[in-house]
Amino acid sequence: xxxxxxxxxxxxxxxYYKEVKAFTGxxxxxxxxxxxxxxxxxxxxxxxxxxxxxxEAIKKTGLEDGMTISFHHHLRNxxxxxxMVMDKIASMGIKDIKIAxxxxxxxxxxxxxxxxxxxxxxxxxxxxxGPVAEAVSEGILENPIIMHTHGGRSRAIESGDIKxxxxxIASPSCDSYGNINGLYGESACGVLxxxxxxxxxxxxxxxxxxxxxxxxxxxxxxxxxxVDYIVVVDKIGDPRGIVSGTTRITKDPIxxxxxxxxxxxxxxxGLLKDGFSFQxxxxxxxxxxxASVREIMKEKGxxxxxxxxxxxxxxxxxxxxxxxxxxxxxxxxxxxAIESLKNNKNHQPMSASMYGxxxxxxxxxxxxxxxxxxxxxxxxxxxxxxxxxxxxVIMGGSGGHSDTAAGAKLAIVVSQLFKGRLPLIADKVxxxxxxxxTIDVLVTERGIxxxxxxxxxxxxxxxSKIQLVSIEELKEIAERITGKPMEIxxxxxxxxxxxxxxxxxxxxxxxxKR
Length: 514
Description:
Layout: E1 50-51, H1 54-61, E2 68-71, H2 81-91, E3 97-101, H3 111-117, E4 120-125, H4 131-137, E5 145-147, H5 150-159, E6 166-171, E7 173-175, E8 180-181, H6 196-201, E9 204-209, E10 212-213, E11 229-232, H7 253-269, E12 278-279, H8 284-300, E13 304-311, H9 313-320, E14 324-332, H10 335-343, E15 347-349, H11 352-356, E16 370-373, E17 377-379, E18 384-385, H12 401-407, E19 410-414, E20 418-419, E21 422-423, E22 425-426, E23 441-444, E24 447-450, H13 455-461, H14 471-482, E25 490-499, E26 505-512
Parallel strand pairs: 1-11, 2-3, 2-6, 3-4, 4-5, 5-25, 6-9, 7-10, 9-11, 12-16, 13-14, 14-15, 16-19, 17-22, 19-23
Antiparallel strand pairs: 7-8, 17-18, 20-21, 23-24, 25-26
Helix pairs in contact: 7-8
Keywords: Cytoplasm, Lyase, Transferase
Pfam families: CitF
InterPro entries: Citrate_lyase_asu, NagB/RpiA_transferase-like
């Protein structure tokens, strides 16, 4: 069958946890929903949760062949817990495990051997990069993996689409009864927003810590009433590995030009006024947009309400300068953000569900005025790909991209018109991560294109200094310089299904041909 974007979607997906529903529109599948029930086993007075080893914890959870386990990714490329747990599971002879990790990184390359041996037979993730992503793209698993948005992952867990048998939570600070935070200890990573749905809805929860503190841990982000067992290990990770991308403002003249133009566009949109809410990524150009917005706010005396998403030190600076009232943080992207979360009461943690779940009673993304987004590709219908690269290999994933685009009043994609010899704009993107109906503007160094759906914005910009071109014109400009790229050859076999945030299938990824 075809979904509303014209993408071919199979009627059935091998190993998929529910009936396949094709994407029909960004806001079509939102309404009354039922959350799953969770069984809780009472703990009697005098009983202890602290165990002697990881193996003992795995045995006590009752983990068996065919079950689903979960991990969070707040330690990003510094995480040791996924490999530690999977090595122990393999040594115990347990097989056919499905891993529901919020994201996977190059450090998780040892999972490939577990896939080859049959220990791991399925993956769910919002983002993946590195050797595991490459192996999946080459068809290492018999069944397709399932990729979500950050909010969509919480929705899937809370609805029971993904039933987690055991959640293993990397816990930078934990007491003997299972109260957890990410603020203290040698492996401090800040907020634990992606682990909260796992803790609340998993059948069993194991906290793995290298920093056992006196009861009660303070502050408490994940509380004792969700944690079954605690294991102390030597090290859960390297916090230096949490740093995402550059986390520094670009010095590239093209990137700076794009950033300045984007800030002028935001000002011309009428949204940059007192109460302004804002989200941007950690990449160099995105941070440069924030820098340009910051200057306008200072010049005009504008005070914003909140910034949200994954947080960098640069956003902390804007909070401390009084440009915004608060930060809502689902993930710390650098060590300065961790310190701010620890010390500033206006820097608040939030769960991934609060952040972007479309099936709760109101996600934070719905209150965003402006979000700055990137793109691997964008097509003439404004559909965006942030999942696969130019060679068709999985190299990312939606993360919060689709969630914020759907919620914000103004979703802006910023990118150079071509990178190397590859043009940004295609007739049809290789993989749809975010539907074009939720993307409002594309800003490049050679022009700004507004989605024709946004007639109100086009009309408003007519009286500004912002010069608009069509996305088709930008595509022609790029192809005159780079030429038209050859189409990627794909196998018929599907290696990944891409769920939109509401649980419908927005696209699939086919096996690459080497």
